[in-house]
# Entry
Amino acid sequence: MKLQEAAQELNIYVGEDDQWSGGPLYAAVVERLKATGLAGASVYKGVEGYGSHGRVHSTRVEVLFEGLPVLIRVVDVPDRISAALSSLDEILTDALVTVKDVKAIRYIKSPKS
# Structure
């Protein structure tokens, strides 16, 4: 079975070394997102990038520096995305957040007749 619906994609960009309450910020964000009932979240670690401070972070040996970019991505219905964003206000102090409208297509295994 194939279901289509209007959805939103939430992207949260933080640094690998960013902390919240003694642990990685990205882990705290995922826990908050889960608590709001979102369908799921994925965390991606970048191999190179720079942020608002202009310092390049990379896995290349000649530029090796901890603090690689991390992307947390979620796709869900707009109401849940909005609620999730409100729950993150307290812990996101140095992050970039983007939200865009997308069409979600979900494939669901149908029971055999």
The mean pLDDT is 86. DSSP finds two helices and eight strands in the chain. The chain has one domain: 2-107.
